[in-house]
Amino acid sequence: MTAARARAQLAADVSRFFGPFRRNEEAKYNLGLGEIECRNALMEEAMGQKEKIAGKLLSSLSKYPGCQGYMPLNEKIAELIKAETGMDFNPGQIVLTAGAADAISHAVFVYSHAGEKVMFPVPSFPYWCSVARNESLIEPIMCMPQDFSDKLSGRIEARAKNVSMLILNVPHNPYGCSIERGEAEKINETASRHKIKVVIDDVYRAFTKKEWIGNSFDMENSVIVDSLSKRFGVPGLRLGFAALPKVEVKHFRAAVANQYVGVSMPSAIIADALLEAYLSNKKLNTIPKEIEKRQEILDSYLKKLEPYGIFSQKPEGGMFRAVFCRDANLLAAELAGKNVIVKGGRSNFPFSYAGMPEFIRISVGGEERIREAAEIIAETVKEIEMPLEGEKIAVIR
Ligand SMILES: Cc1ncc(COP(=O)(O)O)c(C=O)c1O
Question: Do 269 and 165 sit in the same domain of this protein?
Fold first, then answer.
């Protein structure tokens, strides 16, 4: 017999999103998961040192990791944050985790008591599983792309009761939207007044030219969550971190330590080698530029589909796009039949949120043949969708 909570979490089972096992799907256009498949100069540099790194990896296996991290890596992460945001974090304010997803799960544990609410704009990365696992409640803010720039703060204010934590992911997965400074300042003010902790999911910080939203937030009331997964193209490393106010470190560290002692040492050693190379030569990170190029190609196709209700309005970064449609499962199945794998938006949202628009999510990270795939997507939309004359840009069910 399984425990009630183990059964209850199946309503928010993230393996629906990621798949239980990996299969070899090389023949297909992979526009589904947010992985990175492109030339990675940083990895090439690491390959040049593979013997040295392998030696360190093997000798790290005989020791338990630290409960908070690995000091050389914590120091480099603090340097990375300083270089990109100007913020001073002491290496002791950083806690290493098994990816950003894990950092978010610990943040829910630390900042939201069971039964309190965690708020985030929806659609989103699957945060609901972390919330369900910690027996907190979800307060989704159903958003269209155009809701981000100037409507978010008002909607947060209206729903702030019993909310203890807000997750903000900018640029947003899947819309690619950013939040303007004035709006971000209003969100910060609302969150502080209602004692809502702000968790900035910063995994796409390197994938935009817009100002970093963290500049508008009071760092005493914020946590930055990030990882090496996207920016350095190594999601399989499962290495992330949280940077948080000094007084909260002990709580966060205990949350990690009580679950798995600390991150895998081989992951920390590889992350350390990658960051060392990156900090000494930032040009080695070829990924954000490649992703931007792919987005431009994809957007050039999506723009032509505007009459069909497709979103491609001035996205500001990230590595995804949402394509609105009448029936996401149908469109995803048609595309799969033509070897183009995308995420059928709604089917991945286990709670069938009321007001969730129909959309498919396209990732440009894992696929080099974007032009070919975009052509198939455009053709398929024209075949099975009808222009949405005079309607808004999405069909809301
Ligand atoms: C917005 C967002 N946050 C977090 C994650 C999780 O990243 P990680 O691999 O670091 O756990 C993803 C992955 O797609 C994401 O899109």
Answer: yes
